[in-house]
Amino acid sequence: MSTILVYVHGTNGSGKSTLARGVLAAAGGVREYVPVKSGKEGKAGWTGTPRGVALLGSYHRACGGVDGFSPYAHIHDVLLGHADFADARVFAEGLITPGVDTCTKFAGYFDRAVFIALSTPIDDCIRNVRSRRARVGNVKPYTPEKLISKHASALRWADRLAAVGLETHKMPYPDAYNFSLELLGLPLPSIDDLL
């Protein structure tokens, strides 16, 4: 057996959390949440699934992922804890942009590491953020300048990783979802699951 890390990065509204919830559903849902660090040490942990995939972060609420780690460096502890298992399958997603050196270290923990930058069209990202804000009753004016900047930054991140030889892909959410399931050895949903 081999180990794999799938790390997804993108701007707000690009589909990171939706993709993670899809992976979680395909992996059988939440079996357990295992805190690795808590209290004064910071905050970090992973969500275990019945099909053996670990998602970094807590998915007991709408958003999870590595952005909730405090400090972010705790991600190394969690990844190293999983990389020791012969068949580790780990999924991580976040808005925080890990640097090239950090991603190279992450890749070194696993037999295969795949970094995916979500290239969801910017208009879709803006629409998704506005829709999310409306659902929670946020009526403050929204200007998407930061989102546009983060979107461009995520795509440049993928270019920097590819330049040092890391396996990197740029793709919109639907393609990233199917590719992530394939990489993690999870079944693609049937049309009945999607209706």
Question: In terms of structural class, how would the helical and strand content be classed?
Answer: alpha/beta
What value does the Rg take, in angstroms? 16 Å
Estimate the mean pLDDT confidence.
87
Total strands: the figure is 7
Low-confidence stretches: none
**Percent range of helical residues:** 40-55%
**How many distinct helices?**
7
Q: Based on Cα principal axes, name the global outline.
A: globular
Strand content: 15-25%
Strand order across the largest sheet: 2-3-4-5-1-6-7
Q: Biggest sheet: strands, sense, closure? A: 7 strands, mixed
Order of helices and strands: EHEEEHEHEHHEHH
Through-space gap between termini: 34 Å
What's the short story on this structure?
This protein has helices at residues 16-26, 74-83, 100-108, 122-135, 145-163, 173-183, 191-194; strands at residues 4-9, 32-37, 44-48, 53-56, 89-94, 112-118, 167-171. It is an alpha/beta fold and 195 residues long.
Describe this structure as you would to a colleague.
- With 195 residues, the chain is of the alpha/beta class.
- Strands 2-3-4-5-1-6-7 form a seven-stranded mixed beta sheet, sandwiched between helices.
- It is built from seven helices and seven strands; from the N terminus they run βαβββαβαβααβαα.
- It is globular and about 50 Å long.
- 40% of the residues lie in helices and 20% in strands.
List keywords for this structure.
single chain; 195 residues; alpha/beta; 7-stranded mixed sheet; 7 helices; 40% helix
List the SSEs and their pairings.
Layout: E1 4-9, H1 16-26, E2 32-37, E3 44-48, E4 53-56, H2 74-83, E5 89-94, H3 100-108, E6 112-118, H4 122-135, H5 145-163, E7 167-171, H6 173-183, H7 191-194
Parallel strand pairs: 1-5, 1-6, 4-5, 6-7
Antiparallel strand pairs: 2-3, 3-4
Helix pairs in contact: 1-6
